[in-house]
Design goal:
The protein is built from six helices and no strands. The protein is an all-alpha fold and about 100 residues long. It has one domain (about 10-95): lambda repressor-like DNA-binding domains (434 Repressor (Amino-terminal Domain)), CATH 1.10.260. The radius of gyration is 13 Å and the shape is globular.
Amino acid sequence: MAQTRSDTAKAIGERLKLVRLAYAAVQSRVISQSEMARLTGVGIAAWNNAETGDNRLGLDNAMKVSRTTGVSLDYIYFGERAGLPHALAVELEKLENPKAGKRA
């Protein structure tokens, strides 16, 4: 059985969406794609195309996301969780495993 690659544009896009949603949760507000683009300094079209997996986010833009949110480039490009800010890691875990967060 082939393992899904973590560095595809689609996988990176899925993580970018999770980053946006987790960052919004940490900030206690809703953040749209266009607002996330503005907050990070990434162009709106570039953010949208990256989040939907149509194009891979370039290094310069990934660095902007990293500086704004605290996520590492290793997380953006490979899904490596080591070194993520704790609050963001908690929110990412809730988003990826919604049933796990409901356990008592």
